[in-house]
């Protein structure tokens, strides 16, 4: 067994890749890993450490074939707000707009219901969805890349994360390690002040275009409640912006308006949303879908793209897509 280094001082990118290689390869004890992760969280991870850790995870993943224009939208989790599954709904809406979505996700580690939990409650067979991921992505433009199927090295880490019950660097690594190797993403993180650090990590790894977003109240997606920090990452560089819902022609709403619950509760809300239910949940989905469509290359402005997302819901296209997905994965 390896003895993990003290989390202070900070590691450079190469050192982080090596240390997280040890962790992922089972060369450290559960107790050592838990201690190390908590220490990193307490003093905050650097861009070099996030990029190096992500490289270690990428080197051990099982990839899939995907269209060149495939995108992903996800949050790092761990924001403590326990909202409805916004990025899961966004994935369906964006795919219904004709953009292939390789949705990378997991069960809940630090929330009440992760993307996998909610999709399963809606009737999607997660095991079958994993087996048919390449086919559904190619044929209907969506798939769910269940982390446990593509990151076997995480099998031992997940119980440690669940026992800790709080955000760790693994929340940050996941969105940077999509098995479809998507080049365009919307990633929400739970700390607005951390957006430029995470954007720097993403820039070190390279991307065609990625938005890193965080609501001012610490929401790991674009928030309706107030302002948002947004990093626009292109290639190996990024620029910071400020954004609020009014720019997309949407009203403000408090976080409590999209508070979620368990998988059954969140699935019912998502089903109602796809059925055309108005309200803050729909607005939050349209806001984040607009961002995803923008990074995918759509030339519309924020309001135009939010309207396009709304049309994908109101036309029944997103609802039909989910039904087709469930049928193909049966």
Automatic annotation (TrEMBL):
Catalytic activity, as annotated: N-(5-phospho-beta-D-ribosyl)anthranilate + diphosphate = 5-phospho-alpha-D-ribose 1-diphosphate + anthranilate
Ranges for domain Glycosyl transferase family: 69-318
**InterPro entries tied to this protein:** Anthranilate_Pribosyl_Tfrase, Glycosyl_Trfase_fam3, Glycosyl_Trfase_fam3_N_dom, Glycosyl_Trfase_fam3_N_dom_sf, Nuc_phospho_transferase
**Domain of life here?**
Bacteria
**Which of this chain's residues are annotated to bind anthranilate 2?**
161
An example of a GO molecular function for this protein is:
anthranilate phosphoribosyltransferase activity
| Coiled-coil regions listed in the entry | none
Q: Where does anthranilate 1 bind?
A: 75, 106
Q: Provide the binding site for 5-phospho-alpha-D-ribose 1-diphosphate.
A: 75, 78-79, 83, 85-88, 103-111, 115
- Cofactor binding description: Binds 2 magnesium ions per monomer.
Q: Which residues bind Mg(2+) 1?
A: 87, 221
Q: What is its EC number?
A: 2.4.2.18
User: Pathway it acts in?
Assistant: Amino-acid biosynthesis; L-tryptophan biosynthesis; L-tryptophan from chorismate: step 2/5
Recite the UniProt keywords alphabetically.
Answer: Amino-acid biosynthesis, Aromatic amino acid biosynthesis, Glycosyltransferase, Magnesium, Metal-binding, Transferase, Tryptophan biosynthesis
Q: Which intervals hold domain Glycosyl transferase family 3 N-terminal?
A: 12-60
Binding positions for Mg(2+) 2 per the UniProt entry? 220-221
Supply the SUPFAM superfamilies for this chain.
Nucleoside phosphorylase/phosphoribosyltransferase catalytic domain (SSF52418), Nucleoside phosphorylase/phosphoribosyltransferase N-terminal domain (SSF47648)
Per its UniProt record, the required cofactor names are: Mg(2+)
**Chain's role:** Catalyzes the transfer of the phosphoribosyl group of 5-phosphorylribose-1-pyrophosphate (PRPP) to anthranilate to yield N-(5'-phosphoribosyl)-anthranilate (PRA).
The similarity annotation says: Belongs to the anthranilate phosphoribosyltransferase family.
Subunit organization: Homodimer.
According to UniProt, the name of this protein is Anthranilate phosphoribosyltransferase
Q: What is the lineage of its organism?
A: Bacteria, Pseudomonadati, Pseudomonadota, Alphaproteobacteria, Sphingomonadales
